[in-house]
């Protein structure tokens, strides 16, 4: 089982923490339970902006080193913890430690083994001696690492490395052992003015700023939407529960303020709208909200809470709730003719299965809801509880397209009828909660096999004669919704989803139906527990194998029957797991396609026809034509985007490329992605042995298609053709080193922070609603 550490989702980078020892029989408390406030609002206006640009780029999300989140005052006051969140081989589930949810004061966090990084001992205006945060900054000041040279073996950058999380009592030894490991870890020292801003604030007792006042417009939005989500009728309560379980990790906003938009999260509470509330700290959004099993008659409410953390790209999923959206949801869920006669309970076998819990809601309404913001729905798989990690990501290819079954298809109604019969034969790993046996996936494999056979029989007997197998099965976004075609990229243990069919030909493609889309959501988002044990995580990974194959087979249905198995055999070359072969037997692709093919490469022909079919609604956000459009630049970028071969395998998996015109007046940012090729992705282990570097491809995306760059390049527009020539001529690591030295920005470059600021400034100016700070935990030390 030690090999399963590939599944690990440990944490990375900077090393900070501190705390005096508390007596075992005392009630932990902190002076920051009632923090001092600064009338000048210094933390919000001066301190937090420095932390955002220099510290949050590593200290955010579940993978914040030592669980130290520096994106809010609450995160700093909470402190650090020696236990990592990403710990994939744990035998028993850990207790959740979600900021703003599982404890609300530093004193409560002390009871959960978090220790302070602020000085909670000294009194007066010299609160530095017992602050690890101040000590880490001072350590970096004395060893700035602004050398523009590789850091070498003195530093560890493996995402799964063991972290050093010293308390203030341990800091002396830490400083002796690792004198160069100050904050920011493995990056240049911050400027003198930034350093002084942070140190002065810490010395003055780290006062908080007063909470931001909610605007009148947002107050109206909150009131309007809490009324909508908390209707008294049984139908209203069931709809509210369904919407909540799909929105609980969204960043919701009510009005676009052009770069100054306020975001909110949707929480469950036992307190009705209009009253202060404490979020229910349940492990999952469908876990029982009641501590007393006999209190299940108590009403659950859905409430909005301001997002207090700094917005970071790897977590940011903005969703607008306005009158237009309410009109849609009212039409789908309240104006449709159906009845809700009873409310489902929260027993794991019921709540974990959306086909049971929400059986009374029309499938067409649920499906419309999911595809209307399909990028967001899929983004949850990537930016949600599986914030990073192989557990969910080595189960997908590096570059594939996603489309959706047309909601007007006769198959939708057939699925509704079929699911009414089949729903009790479908279960998901969350049914076993967070301490699961790692053998449950055997049962899931049989269930998936039986489900597919039953589904195919039902379609054969009820729908096949009424539905043509052609491109009309693919949703065209109702002519105006650019969520109709999406592209997913995987970058080792991170991923991204963008609108549009981006890049050259993908490695595979999926068509998502409602049952498939919903199961993925309840597998990887609503039902996935990042604190769960090895069994839970292994079962989730194996289950996702089955769902991936289902999406691929849906797409293959559009090919001629004699071509389908050929393509599947190509996608699954080499040693394919016996479980996947068994599940694949259930995919009896029925019926001949109505499409006529005219080339000897039907798969590529199908890719082209799908692009044409969706052409009018596909997003143009990431087209290369949005950047430099002169002949030389566009030719170089287009050629890179179409390149495949072994030279691509030497590049980092994801790079941010900042390109300036000669006079610096025009600036564009691109994402350069390396798409790894494999014989197949049907195994958890031995991924390297299945690599096909000679089949690797490159994709160039205008703007941002990663939150986790491995490298940053910065050069002039006139150098684009030369950059292309050097990339496509890479033959070894030395060639890559030469490329880095000519075009790259080292993590130790004295200019690193300026380039970082330029990238973030461009990001915020170009995409103000989507903007979030990047994550630098995966930057290479070249």
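Q: What amino acid sequence fits the structure above?
A:
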């Amino acid at each position: 089982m030690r090999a399963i550490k590939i599944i690990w989702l440990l944490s990375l980078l900077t090393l900070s923490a501190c705390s005096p020892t508390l007596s075992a029989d005392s009630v932990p408390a902190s002076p920051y339970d009632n923090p001092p406030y600064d009338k000048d609002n210094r933390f919000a206006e001066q301190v937090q902006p420095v932390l955002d640009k220099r510290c949050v780029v590593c200290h955010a999300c579940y993978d914040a080193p030592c669980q130290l989140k520096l994106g809010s005052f609450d995160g700093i006051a909470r402190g650090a913890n020696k236990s990592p969140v990403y710990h994939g081989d744990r035998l028993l589930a850990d207790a959740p430690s979600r900021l703003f949810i599982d404890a609300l004061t530093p004193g409560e966090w002390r009871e959960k083994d978090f220790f302070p990084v602020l000085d909670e001992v000294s009194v007066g205006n010299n609160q530095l001696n017992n602050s690890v945060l101040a000590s880490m900054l001072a350590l970096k000041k004395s060893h700035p690492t602004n050398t523009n040279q590789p850091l070498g073996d003195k530093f560890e950058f493996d995402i799964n490395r063991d972290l050093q999380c010293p308390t203030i009592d341990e800091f002396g030894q830490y400083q002796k052992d690792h004198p160069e490991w100050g904050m920011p870890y493995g990056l240049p020292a911050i400027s003198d003015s930034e350093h002084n801003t942070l140190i002065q604030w810490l010395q003055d007792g780290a006062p908080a700023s007063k909470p931001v006042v909610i605007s009148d417009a947002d107050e109206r939005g909150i009131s309007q939407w809490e009324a909508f989500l908390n209707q008294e009728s049984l139908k209203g309560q069931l709809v509210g529960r369904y919407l909540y379980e799909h929105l609980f990790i969204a960043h919701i906003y009510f009005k676009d303020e052009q770069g100054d938009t306020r975001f909110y999260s949707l929480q469950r509470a036992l307190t009705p709208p209009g009253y202060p509330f404490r979020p229910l700290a349940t492990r999952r959004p469908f876990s029982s909200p009641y501590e007393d099993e006999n209190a299940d008659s108590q009403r659950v409410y859905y409430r909005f809470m301001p997002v207090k953390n700094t917005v970071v790209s790897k977590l940011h999923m903005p969703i607008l709730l306005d009158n237009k959206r309410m009109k849609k949801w009212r039409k789908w869920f309240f104006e449709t003719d159906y009845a809700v006669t009873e409310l489902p309970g929260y027993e794991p076998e019921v709540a974990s299965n959306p086909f049971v819990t929400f059986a009374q809601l029309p499938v067409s309404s649920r499906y419309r809801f999911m595809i209307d913001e399909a990028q967001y729905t899929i983004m949850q798989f990537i930016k949600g509880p599986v914030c990073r990690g192989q557990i969910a990501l080595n189960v997908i290819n590096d570059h594939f397209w996603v489309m959706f079954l047309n909601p007007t298809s006769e198959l939708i109604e057939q699925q509704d009828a079929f699911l009414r019969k089949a729903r009790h034969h479908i279960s998901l790993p969350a049914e076993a909660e967070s301490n699961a046996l790692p053998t449950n996936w055997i049962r899931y494999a049989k269930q998936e096999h039986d489900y597919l056979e039953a589904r195919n029989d039902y379609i054969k007997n009820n729908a096949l004669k009424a539905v043509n197998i052609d491109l009309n099965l693919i949703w065209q976004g109702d002519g105006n919704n650019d969520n109709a075609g999406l592209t997913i990229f995987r970058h080792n243990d991170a991923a991204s989803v963008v609108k549009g069919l981006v890049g050259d030909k993908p490695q595979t493609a999926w068509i998502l139906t409602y049952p498939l889309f919903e199961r993925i959501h309840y597998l990887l988002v609503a039902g996935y527990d990042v604190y769960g044990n090895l069994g839970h995580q292994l079962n989730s990974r194996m289950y996702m194998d089955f769902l991936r194959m289902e999406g691929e087979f849906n797409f293959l249905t559009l090919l001629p029957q004699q071509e389908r198995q050929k393509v599947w055999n190509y996608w699954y070359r080499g040693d394919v797991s016996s479980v996947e072969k068994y599940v694949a037997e259930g995919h009896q692709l029925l019926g001949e396609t109505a499409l006529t093919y005219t080339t000897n490469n039907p798969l590529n022909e199908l890719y082209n026809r799908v692009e044409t079919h969706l052409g009018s609604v596909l997003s143009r956000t990431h087209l290369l034509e949005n950047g430099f459009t002169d002949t030389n630049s566009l030719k170089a970028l287009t050629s890179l985007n179409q390149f495949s071969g072994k030279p691509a395998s030497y590049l980092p998996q994801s790079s941010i490329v900042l390109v300036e015109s000669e006079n610096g007046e025009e600036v564009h940012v691109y994402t350069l992605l390396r798409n790894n090729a494999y014989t197949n992705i049907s195994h958890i282990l031995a991924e390297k042995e299945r690599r096909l570097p000679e089949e690797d491809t490159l994709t160039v995306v205008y703007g941002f298609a990663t939150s986790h760059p491995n490298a940053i390049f910065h050069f002039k527009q006139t150098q684009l053709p030369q950059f292309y020539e050097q990339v496509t001529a890479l033959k070894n690591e030395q060639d890559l080193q030469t490329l880095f030295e000519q075009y790259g920005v080292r993590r130790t470059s004295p200019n690193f922070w300026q380039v970082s600021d330029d990238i973030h400034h461009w990001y915020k100016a170009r995409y103000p609603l989507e903007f979030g700070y990047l994550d630098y935990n995966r930057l290479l030390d070249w």
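Q: And what stands out in the fold?
A: The mean pLDDT is 90.
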